[in-house]
Amino acid sequence: MDASTTFPLLIPVASVLAFAGVAILFTQLAPRKSTLQKLTDYNPVTVRGSLGEMRREYEQNYPLYRLTLPIISWFAALHTKLDRKNYVARMQRRLNAAGNPGAYTPDEIVGLRLLLAIAFPVLAYAVMVGTVSLEEGGRGFVAGCSCLFGLVYPSIWISDHVTRRSKAINRALPYVLDLLTLAVEAGLDFISAVERIVSKASERDPLTDEFFVMLQELKMGKTRRESLRDMAHRCKMENVDTVVAALIQADQLGTSLGPVLRIQAEMLRVRRSQRAEKLAMEAPVKMLFPLLFIFSSVFLLLFGPTVVRFFREGLF
């Protein structure tokens, strides 16, 4: 089998190898829901910001994490000697918005990129040796694709966590605001209401975790305004920024928080309805392009044999 006949297999092979490597590595590196439930339990020792405790939990539950962490740390040590400028601050903001998956530091994310950039080509070459016959150019192409995918995948992984976490916060925010409204109107102050919601939560979610971190910052001496601003800075979401700005303004003016929370909850529900209507109106336009190919194939299957028979019989 020469390279000309196997070259069409390059892209499928590269894709399969890349996703296989992701499945092997990140099914062990990414935390499961039960582990997150344990890590974010209502215990000051295991607060989400305590990376040391999170890391020990990951090392106990994931052998591959424990195996690869020294290599990632070695690469991270090399990166700390370089001129990083504001990379650390930008990556730390992304990790905070993602919920610190894997308890990695910004430098360790660079180490993870380098590790995957080396591991994916090695895995691809090992698979190709026994399955696909390629010339040196073809092997280099597959190795280059695998290396590039290994460099890019940590960013995709973090972005996926950010997206899922943002959706979970947007989904839970109106209901939490309703509970805060009921608690405040019943006579509790804002902090006591937040503590009651966090302590009585039946299941941990990203929004409850953020409130829990805010409570821990208050216990360490921060003011309510500073802790609210820090929460908005961690989430980096428009809805959270709006709610935090309204709470800070109400605190500065000395107005009652009950009506403010109720108005914010209603506004978020209106925004959700408007977003659903927008997506519903965009759906037909997005479906038009795929349907053109689907209907073309259907017409070809239905009328193609008839047209061929007419041409053969000389009817056209």
Describe the 3D structure:
This protein folds into two domains: 3-167, no CATH class; 169-270, Receptor-associated Protein (Up-down Bundle). Helix 5 packs across helix 7. It has 316 residues and is mostly helical. The longest helix is centred in the last third of the chain and has 56 residues, at 257-312. It has helices at 3-6, 10-29, 33-39, 51-61, 63-80, 87-98, 106-131, 136-185, 190-200, 206-219, 224-235, 238-253, 257-312. Helices cover 81% and strands 0% of the residues. The protein contains 13 helices and no strands.
Keywords:
single chain, 316 residues, mainly alpha, Receptor-associated Protein, 2 domains, disordered N terminus
Low-confidence stretches: 1-8, 27-49
Q: What share of residues are in beta strands?
A: under 5%
Number of strands: 0
Major sheet description = none
Distance between the termini: 45 Å
- Gyration radius (Cα, Å) is 27 Å
Topology as a string of helices (H) and strands (E): HHHHHHHHHHHHH
The number of domains: 2
What's the tally of helices? 13
- What overall form do the CA principal axes indicate? flat
Helix and strand composition category: mainly alpha
The whole-number mean of residue pLDDT values reads 76
Question: Percent of residues in helical segments?
Answer: over 70%
Blueprint of the fold:
Blueprint: H1 3-6, H2 10-29, H3 33-39, H4 51-61, H5 63-80, H6 87-98, H7 106-131, H8 136-185, H9 190-200, H10 206-219, H11 224-235, H12 238-253, H13 257-312
Helix pairs in contact: 2-7, 2-8, 4-5, 5-7, 6-8, 7-8, 8-9, 8-13, 9-10, 10-11, 11-12, 12-13
